[in-house]
Amino acid sequence: MDLTLFTLTRAVDVVVCIAWLYWSRWRKAKGCWSATEAAAPKFADAGLFSVSSAVVMWAWFYLPERLPKSYERWISEAAKVDWRLIEALRRARRGVFVYGKETGQAPLLQSMCKDYNWPMVWGDPAKTIPMPCEMVHMGCGPSCEKHAAFRFATSFKFACATYFPLQIAFRFRSLKSRAALVRAVSDALWSSTFLASFVSLFYYGVCLARARLGPKIFDKETVTPQMWDSGLCVGTGCLMCGWSILAENTRRRQEMALFVAPRAAATVLPRFYDRKVCLTNRAVSVRRLHPYYGLAPFDSALVPQILTAMFLPVVPIPGACCLCSQCSRPPGLSSGTADLGPRCFRQDCDEYPELVGGLYYMHF
């Protein structure tokens, strides 16, 4: 699906560029070319990147399972945010972390208060409404602007450690000339500035929404602190951070936008796979399953059975509450043949299927 979205995005880009070329020629021939139309191509890539980045960052915050693991991990390394803070905002969105109500969520942020030497009452949503913005700053003090500057500096350092080696590696053969060296350093600095601006704008957008501007523009009765921390503040940060692409070189904005757009689309579109592919993938990865199920190591002798099972129907797996009739433990897996039905996967149970072996479909 990722390759399909990548190809589709490139194809749509070509079609839009051709359509815009004909449109601009027609408008100029009629003498109706406006300043807005002249400026549109300059901000089209930035707008696409901003929207795509907003979708990706929203997914990273609330739906991280929809992002590729490597991509999600890299964003986490660049953001450097305390996981307890993210979890508190996620629980607020789910209606578990509620201001002014005792829901047993105080220990989550109170452990954070203990680590940062803050008053313990800050971490109790039943008593502190809303959580102080200083907690979002994670030790940078109460100033939102100071925190944004600190985020810019730390992210710039992180980005330089990433982009400078890449520029040197890509231009290694041409670095003998001074002009090539200056170009490599310049590109690395531009890219580092872009990433640092991305991170700092995200954090500052959160602060603007929940503390600086949001409560001053909207009455607390209209937009409550619970509503801000349930998604509005994160959404503001997501919408703001993408415009940092304006700090990047103009020639790279289109590539950056077309790089992020397929990933944003992948987080929105549902993923449907052929059951044959799912069955084969689960069978091949059987060794990586949790040891609770007591699986035997994958045997290469099962390959013929795997190929055979690709043409057999896959039995839907019962819910996690379904227990084996023999050992009263969740089977977790279901056999790949229609006549056997769900069986226990532990070898010490009488229900362990000896015939099918490793051909099972995992239920998550």
Describe the protein's architecture and organization.
It contains 13 helices and two strands; from the N terminus they run H-H-H-H-H-H-H-H-H-H-H-H-H-E-E. It is an all-alpha fold. It folds into two domains: 204 residues, no CATH class; 88 residues, no CATH class. The two termini are 20 Å apart.
Please provide a brief summary of the model.
With 364 residues, the chain is an all-alpha fold.
Beta strands, count? 2
Beta percentage is: under 5%
End-to-end distance: 20 Å
Strands of the biggest beta sheet: in what spatial order? 1-2
Q: Give the overall pLDDT as a whole number.
A: 74
Low-confidence stretches: 280-300, 309-364
Main β sheet profile? 2 strands, antiparallel
Tell me the number of helical segments per DSSP (H or I, 4 or more residues long). Answer: 13
- Estimate the helix proportion, in percent: 55-70%
Report the principal-axis shape.
Answer: globular
Kindly name the structural category.
mainly alpha
Highlighted features:
single chain; about 375 residues; mainly alpha; 2 domains; two-stranded antiparallel ribbon; 13 helices; 2 strands; about 60% helix; disordered C terminus
Summarize the topology.
Layout lengths: L1 H29 L4 H28 L6 H11 L3 H12 L11 H11 L16 H5 L6 H27 L7 H35 L1 H4 L7 H17 L8 H19 L6 H10 L18 H7 L23 E3 L24 E3 L2
Antiparallel strand pairs: 1-2
